[in-house]
Amino acid sequence: MLSYVVFTLTLCGIYALLALSLNLAWGGVGMVNLGLSGFYAVGAYASAIVTRAGAPVLVGWAAALLAGALVGSVVTGATVRLRDDYLAIVTLGFAEVIRLIVLNERWLTRGADGISGIREPLKAVLGSQGFSLFYLAAVSFVVLLVWLLLRRLDASPYGRTMKAIREDPLLAAFAGKPVLRFKLQAFAMSSAIAALAGALYAHFQSYISPDQFAPLITIYLFLAVTAGGVGRPSGVVLGAYLLVIFLEATRFATEILPGLQPVQLASAREMLTGLALLLLLHLKPGGLLPERQPKSLQPVNETRS
Predict the structure, then answer these.
(1) How far apart are CA 125 and CA 130, in angstroms?
(2) 277 pLDDT higher than 90
(3) 87-100: per-residue pLDDT in tens?
(4) Residue 23 CB contacts under 8 Å (≥ 6 apart), including other chains
(5) How confident is the model at residue 303 (pLDDT cuts 50, 70, 90)?
(6) How high does pLDDT run on average in the chain?
(7) Can you give the pLDDT at residue 261?
(8) From CA 177, how far away is CA 119, in angstroms rounded?
(9) pLDDT digits (tens, 9 = 90+) for 36-90
(10) What span, in angstroms and rounded, lies between the C-alpha atoms of 20 and 147?
């Protein structure tokens, strides 16, 4: 039972990183990224390939961050001038391109067989149980660090400029803000965080394959961010943890339904997730922890005699 709880909490942390990544682009500058699973895969494969070549795990994580930022910059640089809906379509296509690359370039990714034997840091020293607890602590520390950095970013002039661009990019440009540069930087940082989450997942599971990075992950992350509260780091972390715990709970809840095949049980889990989100948004339209709006300045009434 303890192993299952530790596994679930570690997965919660990885999803929380992905939710923070999505929130930085979507809740920060209003860029909808439907290719989040692609950046997740880029980080996982980058770290797995680098560490299999003999590099330390920390170097693999750094390589994932760099690969995610680089790929994110390339994708955004080619599409940042498009309307938001076109950007969403392009990022969705990017995720499919990444899936096809890792599926077909067997010389690099081993195709559908996946990459196994990915290094698990300190597992030989700590043992299986000790490694699980250590990795949970490591993932939780990374989530806390990224959360603190993004909260600090939100409160800074840089973060306020990002929110201004999200609300009205034309007005922000008229005010002299470099809108394109801010969007490029925000999307690159967002992609790097998603890639780091992929690297953490790869070294936790020690095996990755193309089917582990399905587009459904992106849908789940949009659910988590929406349920937690778009634009607020604390809200999206809470949403990610609750989503993973809820998905695991539905695994047990659907097993008590009689006469259903495995495929039908999987569909029932998706239905329960959708119904839970609808109920939550009906009760809390802004999410569990909605974004705090700054109070408007009160006008100063001056009386002159």
Answers:
(1) 9
(2) no
(3) 888 899 999 999 99
(4) 150, 225, 230, 231, 232, 233, 236
(5) very low
(6) 89
(7) 72
(8) 44
(9) 999 999 999 999 999 999 999 999 999 999 999 999 999 888 776 766 678 888 8
(10) 7
What is the 3-class SS of the chain, one letter each residue?
CHHHHHHHHHHHHHHHHHHHHHHHHHHHHCCCCCCHHHHHHHHHHHHHHHHHCCCCHHHHHHHHHHHHHHHHHHHHHHHCCCCHHHHHHHHHHHHHHHHHHHHHCHHHHCHHHCEECCCCCCHHHHHHHHHHHHHHHHHHHHHHHHHHHHHHHHHCHHHHHHHHHHHCHHHHHHCCCCHHHHHHHHHHHHHHHHHHHHHHHHHHHCEECHHHHCCHHHHHHHHHHHHHCCCCHHHHHHHHHHHHHHHHHHHHHHHHCCCCCHHHHHHHHHHHHHHHHHHHHHHCCCCCCCCCCCCCCCCCCCCCC
Instruction: Give buried/exposed letters for 246-262 (b at 16+ CB in 10 A, else e).
Output: bbbebeeebeeeeeeee
Cβ count near 60 (within 10 Å): 26
Closest CA to 239 of 266, 273, 205, 196: 273
Mean pLDDT throughout 242-247? 92
84 vs 80: CA distance, rounded Å: 9
Residue 231 and residue 290: Cα distance in Å, rounded? Answer: 8
Residue 206 tokens read as 């020690």
